[in-house]
Amino acid sequence: MSLDALLECIRRHPETPGWGMGRWEAALDRDVAGWRTIVAGPDCWPALERARPRSDYDDLTRVLVRCAGDDLAWRWRRSDDTHQRRAAEEWLRSNYSSHDDGWRESRLMGAIEHRIASLFGRLEQRLDALVERLGQRVRYGGMPVRRGTTSAAGGSGGGMAGPAWASAAPAALYLPSRAERELIARVLDYLQHGGYETAALPPIVLSDEPPPLFIRYPELEDDEPQPRGDDQPRPASLDIPRNRKRGRPETYPIEQLLGCYRPGDQTIVLYERGIGWYGRQVGADAQALQAVVLVHEIAHWAAHVLPHPEVPLWPLDTYVATSTAVHEGWAQLITWWIVRDVGGAVKDSFETLNRRQSPPYLVFREFAGLHSAGVVASLAMLRQLGRGARLPDWRAALQPADAAGSAVQPQSPRTDRVGAEYVWVPAGAGLAGFWMLRTPVTNAMWRAAVQVGAVKPPRNTHAYDDAAKTQHPVVYVTREQARAYATWVGGRLPRDAEWTWAAQGDDGRTYPWGEQPPDATRANCRPHGPGDTTPVGSYPAGAGPYGLLDMAGNVWEWVDPDDGGDQPYLVRGGACFDGPATVACAARETGDADTDDCYDGFRVVIARELAGM
């Protein structure tokens, strides 16, 4: 018996949510001999407290307390973890009456601890207020603590500046935490490989002023705080009603709500109120969200002025004149590298953030599969262009060779004969790089092929003829029909290994987006989906490592065997009626030669040998 084996079993299970205590005990009995003896030993408790399963931690804590008994229950009675504390409470309630001395003592100590915590909480608030007032009169590190606004020179060069007339609101120089410095160091690590040097961080201001989006849409802010130092209630005469003719914003750009880089004075501003508000709106961890925004703005600063012995700094006038798509594409791509590396709450916050970003912030997905060396090398050309860079300029700069000596990304093709968009999937896992259709083939794409006689309409045309489903995946097509369409657009079906590599990337993730189970934002599948197909690309939060969409759920996708032969008949990705296990990247099913199911679709690959590369 082994503690390591027990911890590994906990991290690996459950395979599906909602196991319950019985299934937990059965799994532990099956996989870890003598696990009850291990759990009963107090020496193992610290390690058990840090181990987390994929889900159903609540029932696991009940199992562990039931096995270890009173000592673990009393230990967890004061735990900071809600699940541990709840399991301990339930155990103690079921094993002690309210008249027992031990239970009375526990409740009394709990009440005393709560009162002490409340007292210290109030003292801490008063100390914070005192420090805030003193901060206006003292200097930090030889520099005055700033109390001011975002200047008109703010933003990242793409029109994201804060207004010059923004009200003077509290702000202070911000010192990144150790965890945030680790993220920043990772940004510099990537750039250092391209010859860029380490430099002192720019001034970082944590501002309590209203971000530009709150000025344009004042009704967005749910709990507007009183200005600091103003203890008087707001006069009723200033309760001005909202202008009902003004709509609500469709997107929440980072620079308008969460933070910005001011190239004029090379300062990073973090909007404390915007970060807190957005975190509450989307249920994101505010600390992780702030870390993501900080990395994003550090990427802007690095692009602008991080020194290189052979590359000049980016001149301010051309930096400001560069398009928002280039600035935000760069910053988002750098941020993506970092959050992909660290995972966890930081990666979740980045994915959540991108659900409401405007198109320039999503440009990075086009380049998400590129080798980082080629991206970093492109910065030299942008700095030396002599004018404001545009997206075609950046694409042209992304042509240097990768570590293997092959092109990082060919310039063509990017679309096929029906205008469908393809994503470059780089070489890896023994495969050459290839282009893959970003989404499954739609009814509209199939209809274009029908009109020229390349293919026939699907066997069942119920969805195909529905005018509301032109952008839904085409279904009721056999593998041979899918092959015919792929040939017509100049490609072929993906090979099984190609599909897997495109969905998982190099980290072997469970789902295209990572390890988190599917939810209503990531995939069209049970139990959260509508029970029918949806328009392709409806779940951008479920994008894979290279920006491919709908790789999990919606419809099964035909693939060819790795040898390009005819056997076996394979479909990948799961469909809208399947559950989490079936839409995982590794899941596959076999079919018959003439299978044309109501949930069988496909996408196309254009490989080097077909594109003349």
Concise structural overview:
With 613 residues, this protein is an alpha+beta fold.
Residue fraction in strands? 5-15%
Tell me the total number of β-strands: 14
Helix content: 25-40%
Instruction: Specify the overall morphology.
Output: globular
The averaged pLDDT comes out at: 81
* Major beta sheet summary: 5 strands, mixed
Q: What is the spatial order of strands in the main beta sheet?
A: 3-4-5-7-6
Low-confidence stretches: 135-171, 223-232, 400-413
Number of helices: 22
The secondary-structure class comes to: alpha+beta
Radius of gyration: 28 Å
State the separation between the terminal residues, measured CA to CA: 55 Å
Give the topology, please.
Blueprint: H1 3-12, H2 21-31, H3 35-40, H4 45-50, H5 57-68, H6 70-76, H7 82-95, H8 101-135, E1 139-140, E2 143-144, E3 147-148, E4 169-173, H9 178-192, E5 204-207, H10 212-216, H11 254-257, E6 259-262, E7 267-271, H12 272-282, H13 286-305, H14 316-321, H15 324-342, H16 344-353, H17 372-383, H18 391-397, E8 422-425, E9 434-437, H19 443-451, H20 479-488, H21 496-504, E10 556-559, E11 569-572, E12 588-591, E13 600-601, E14 605-607, H22 608-611
Describe this structure in words.
The protein is α+β, with helices and mostly antiparallel strands. It is 39% helix and 8% strand. It has helices spanning 3-12, 21-31, 35-40, 45-50, 57-68, 70-76, 82-95, 101-135, 178-192, 212-216, 254-257, 272-282, 286-305, 316-321, 324-342, 344-353, 372-383, 391-397, 443-451, 479-488, 496-504, 608-611, and strands spanning 139-140, 143-144, 147-148, 169-173, 204-207, 259-262, 267-271, 422-425, 434-437, 556-559, 569-572, 588-591, 600-601, 605-607. It has a 5-stranded mixed beta sheet. Strand 6 and strand 7 (267-271) form a beta hairpin. Mean pLDDT is 81; it is low at 135-171, 223-232 and 400-413.
